[in-house]
Amino acid sequence: MIGRRVGEPQLNRAGDSFLTVVLRAAGDPMSLVPAVRSAIAGLDNTLPLHSIATLDQFRANWITLWRVNMLLVAVFAALARALGGISIYGVLA
Questions:
Q1: CB-based contacts of 31, cutoff 8 Å, min separation 6
Q2: pLDDT digit string (tens) for 7-59?
Q3: Where are the domains of the chain?
Q4: How many CB atoms within 10 Å of residue 18?
Q5: Taking the C-alpha atoms of 51, 57, 61 and 64 in order, what is their torsion angle to the nearest 10 degrees?
Q6: Is the dihedral of CA 4, 7, 44, 50 positive or negative?
Q7: Is residue 32 within 8 Å of residue 23, measured between CB atoms?
Q8: What's the pTM?
């Protein structure tokens, strides 16, 4: 979203607000999850926590989505090229 200030909640399509929290850990980042859950519960007990992942897991999921999209584009491009070749052969024959 253009013009959004740092720390300002983003709006998703349903209109609900959500906030992304990024933490840096010296050791195992998943060991911080209970402490983060208790700290957020101390602020507001009604806030749900979901999609807790490390940066490597997030990046792997994001790259997987791009790879699937590019595979679909490549398949449809090959299909279009094959159909174009067949049609040109049919016209010339």
A1: 25
A2: 555 555 555 566 777 888 888 888 888 888 888 888 888 877 877 888 888 88
A3: 1-52, 54-93
A4: 13
A5: -170
A6: positive
A7: yes
A8: 0.50
Separation CA 60–CA 53 (nearest Å): 11
Return the H-helix or E-strand segment holding 11. Answer: strand 10-11
Q: What is the C-alpha to C-alpha distance for residues 64 and 68, in angstroms, rounded to an integer? A: 6
Which residue reads 């009604």 in tokens? 46
For the record, the structure tokens of 15 come out as: 């209109």
pLDDT digit string (tens) for 73-91?
A: 999 999 999 999 999 999 9
14 HSE (CA, 13 A, CB side): 3
Residue 40 and residue 43: Cα distance in Å, rounded? 5
The answer on pLDDT for 1 being more than 50 is no
